[in-house]
Amino acid sequence: MNRSFYVRLATMLLVAMAGWVILWPSFTKIAPAWVVARVPYRMNLGLDIRGGARLSYEVQIGAAIASRRDRTIEGLREQLAIDYGFHSGTGRLTEEASQRLGTKLQFRRSEIDNREFSVIFRNAAENTRLTNEMLTQRDLRLVSRVGDRVVAALKQEEAERIERESVEEAVRRIEQRIDALAVRETSITTRGETIVIEIPGSNQQYFDEIRDIIRKTARLEFRMCADSATALERFRGGGELAGRVPAGITLESEQVSVGQRGDGSSISGTALFFRAQGPQGRRDLERFIHSIRSDIPETYDLLIGEDDRRTRRQQQVELTAEQKFWRSYTVEHVAHVTGDQIQAAEVQVRQDTNQPYTSLTFKTDGSRAFAQITTDNVGRRFAIVLDDLVKSAPVINEPIRNGSASITLGSGDFRNQMREANELSVVLRAGALPAPLAEGAMDFIGPTLGQDIIRRSITAAAIAVGLVMLFMAVWYGSAGWVANGAVLLNILLQLAAIAFLGATITLPGLAGLALTVGMAVDSNVLINERIKEEQRSGKTLRAALDAGYQHAFTAIFDGHVTSFISGVVLMQYGTGPIKGFAVMLLIGIVANLFTGVFCTRIVFDWLVRGLKVKSLSFG
């Protein structure tokens, strides 16, 4: 026996041992605890085997286009403020500059077309200030320019780009959120604007938590509260719009800090806000605020948030939905810092109150913007807004220049607050969705069905492999037993490869496994038949083995290469079950060449050259 034989033998044994070590922890009933703890690889069962949930979401492309339009409007607002001399061009547009610009023109968003908006000038002769060049630079097209009104819209190609990229970005954000939760074996596919997510498992609460995290848009904004604004004065008693406030909603006032004097003392002011109670009150408040949008100056927005005026001790007791109060906040329309400028988000617990919160760390530009806005507005409140819901509105007591902030989670017990803080940190780290998701159907595959499929599949596979091995043993004798050993090693290596790669075993994958087992047997049939032909020509067993493997290898290799190409194409362009079949097929082809050609040759060499066997049965 030469040195190359021992190298090949060592390679085969090492690969077989590595395959078993990788696969061993998947058999929890026979694997020792120390193996399960130290070897991280597991076979993952797919949705069609294990059972689970299939979720579908529709990407609201219209909202993404409207968001792009609104950002464009803000850019035009700043440019026009510069042209009028109201803004220096450095930093964001101030509240004072916005108010002065409002005396010259107004922006109106179209209620029919989310790509379109109008600019209405107080002096019709000034409509030329909005030039065609300004529109073109922002991927806008001029719809009309008549009198005091200029109508513009996003270009069609820009809307199509947003539509395409919104779906791609939504899939990427969802993948990041799921990865952050360490949810394995998840399949995400798209069908136009629909995203389909398949999650194996059987825990309804687990699915609900994942649904909550997936569907959160997670658009985080820091906006200054406009507590000194008189936007709601007309809704006071005796005001021209007082009669529009529906029953169940009250207009209230509060004393808040609206600035700071030179000596450091606070400037107090009266802020007006709407208030309602319970789930129905919240819905009524949202509808009412939407209906009066045109009555609020365009430089402001009305947002809602939970109104919890209890003490910290009282806040440890979670309110029922009917007990909760909701209120409005008047905030500046422009967000001074956004979630895109966040670098890290993690959960921490306050030592003094034992209350979980989400700690934020800003990127360089976000840190600079946050320091600037807190420096310029000491003594004022700023609203922390998540998906248009005000989470809190603290007063800026001093400039915050360390590039960090925190979000508290409102009322409730520790467990619920911790869960909400974890969910919030996950979605903030992954980033905001480019558009809201509309949840579609949620289908369940019960674990009982999955177990039944597993049992039937294992039974069918065992019968198939058993019949093949019986045929090989009866037809080819001792050479058939060598082939049977190669088939068993082949199955071991395929399952180990699946566990190592973290791939998911699906029913089509099991079909691919069965197919490659058949291909492995076919390879041994070709080799054995070729060796028989060489023996009939009068060659010795050793010479027949050499010639049989040499001549059969070309046919075996060509057949596997063509199948490999088909598998690559299926994996590249297939989705879901087709992809699972392709992955198993590719792994099986590589395993076949290793076991059917490399490993069986080592065994025959050991028998003929090592044990000096003079004859072997090849059928």
Helical segment tally? 17
Distance between the termini: 27 Å
Structural class per helix/strand content? alpha+beta
What is the tally of beta strands? 21
| Approximate shape | elongated
The CATH first-level class of the largest domain comes to Alpha Beta
Instruction: Give the proportion of residues in helices.
Output: 40-55%
Average pLDDT: 83
Shape-level CATH architecture of the largest domain? 2-Layer Sandwich
Number of domains: 3
Q: How would you sum up the major sheet?
A: 8 strands, mixed
Description:
- The relative contact order is 0.11.
- With about 625 residues, this protein is an alpha+beta fold.
- It has helices at about 5-25, 35-40, 45-50, 60-85, 95-100, 130-135, 155-180, 205-215, 280-290, 310-315, 365-375, 415-430, 445-475, 480-500, 505-535, 540-575, 575-610; strands at about 45, 50-60, 105-110, 115-120, 140-145, 150-155, 185-190, 195-200, 220-225, 250-260, 265-275, 300-305, 325-330, 335-340, 340-350, 355-360, 380-385, 390, 405-410, 435-445, 505.
- The strands form five sheets. Strands 10-11-13-12-18-17-9-14 form an eight-stranded mixed β-sheet.
- It is elongated.
- The protein folds into three domains: about 5-45 and about 445-610, Multidrug efflux transporter AcrB transmembrane domain (Multidrug efflux transporter AcrB transmembrane fold, Up-down Bundle); about 60-160, no CATH class; about 215-440, Gyrase A, domain 2 (2-Layer Sandwich).
- The protein has 17 helices and 21 strands.
Protein topology:
Layout lengths: L2 H21 L9 H6 L5 E2 L1 H4 L1 E8 L1 H23 L11 H8 L2 E5 L6 E6 L10 H6 L2 E7 L2 E6 L1 H25 L6 E5 L2 E7 L3 H12 L4 E5 L25 E11 L5 E12 H14 L8 E7 L5 H4 L9 E8 L4 E2 L3 E8 L6 E7 L1 H13 L5 E5 L2 E4 L11 E5 L5 H17 L6 E9 L1 H30 L1 H24 L2 E2 L1 H30 L4 H33 L3 H34 L9
Parallel strand pairs: 1-21, 12-18
Antiparallel strand pairs: 2-8, 2-20, 3-4, 4-6, 5-6, 7-8, 9-14, 9-17, 10-11, 11-13, 12-13, 15-16, 16-19, 17-18
